[in-house]
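Field reference: sequence -> structure
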Amino acid sequence: MAEGEVAGGELRADCARCFGLCCVAPAFAASADFAIDKPAGRPCRNLRTDFACGIHTELRERGFPGCTVFDCFGAGQRVAQVTFGGRDWRAAPRTARQMFDVFAVMRPLHELLWYLTEALALRPPAGLREQLSAAIAETDRIASGDPQALLTLDVDAYRGKVNPLLARAAQLARESDGAGADHRGAALVGRDLRRTALRGANLRGALLVGADLRGVDLTRADLTGADLRAADVRGADLTAALFLHQSQVEAARGDRQTRLPARIVRPTHWSDLPLARHR
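Structure field:
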């Protein structure tokens, strides 16, 4: 493989090549994110016989915004087409439980692959670059294992092994622009952060649910795992935010003035209302 290349396939979901695994394997709890309770392993009532979602274009309106922000990072099609060779759980019901359990392992592995690939794109020093490339190769090798091997993996332990590399890459990227404040894991729910300097900030795992980030410069801010549900990012500059994923953007509230990286698709549900004047 070339440096950073993933042998197992893409790191973006391709639902047409999956068997609706995210609509079956996990449990849903009736909440603001899901309109119904659904136990793990039971198909969502909206899953069609062709494995497509029957209300895909109306998920938010029908009470399923949680579905719109979920991303398997390509794990679904890898489990369906590679690990299980294209045998779907309906046609081969004996594979169903094992397939669902493997998906629960594959998804965090593919998430790690996405983060490692992003870290490599930050062009870290040679030594760290070699470590990241090695971690990509190892993670992809593990993800290429058979179902039995995958199910023996301690995902949390493996994530703990890889995360320090990602944190180091983010730290170096932040420092290259002048590292900002450390808000790692901070509870910033509903906070007005418009006058808080967040350029180059460490926001790994921060709870930013409903936070007011209008007009905030988040250049080189580390957003790894930050919870941006209902965060107001209208007019914010996310162009060079670190480890910003599409699902985080989908969960936030933005507008046409929100600046995004080229790889991020502007959500169709975002408002086109002009940015409110700062108080």
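Note: The CA atoms of residues 33 and 65 lie 5 Å apart.
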